[in-house]
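Entry type: protein chain
Record version: 2
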Amino acid sequence: MTGRGPSAASVRARLTDRYGTVDKPTLDPLDELVLTILSQSTTDANRDRAYDRLRDRFPSWDDVRTAPGGAIEDAVRVAGLGGQKARSIKRALARLHEERGSTTLSHLAAMGDTEATEYLTSFDGVGVKTAACVLCFSLRRPVLPVDTHVFRIGKRLGWLPESCTANRAHRLLEEWVQPSDRFAVHMLLITLGRDACTARAPSCGTCPVEQECPKIGLDAGADRPS
């Protein structure tokens, strides 16, 4: 661990004072898996549009499994990387049907966190972040998904080394943040990343953790506003 920056408990308290409790609807694990695959390298708005189009055109996951790849790609095109995401979704559904006899991830509930993560990341197109989202949001397991906002803010706070990889960040942040705080910290950091701690020209002067933040990686001047 880097040993720098404010404690996770202090950051959570300050962000909760500003933003309140931030929650997310709980989806079925398979729904969350598909949604998170669609979220890769795109905006939340485009992810949601792609997911809604997919569900509108194909009422069940079995319908998606048996649909032509081109039809799936057309439905999710708005999220970008349509061909790649369509293949990942179709292959995941086909594998689940072959393994389980139905398109379901209900068996994840009987797995421990490590086993579930290893299982999910064995699917084509599913990385550690996607697996963590399924465990965190669908099963409410004490894992902390590291998306672009969490990764960026974790570095600025000094919680992550500047040279840290995204996969290593999952392990380091789970060492830094108590299990009971992980869901809340994840959601609050995303909110902060959209509101003040943006990728470019962050509004440090309006940030609720500005006084504690070491602002790692932000140089004086335009990239480090007062």
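Comment: Confidence is low (pLDDT under 50) at residues 220-226.
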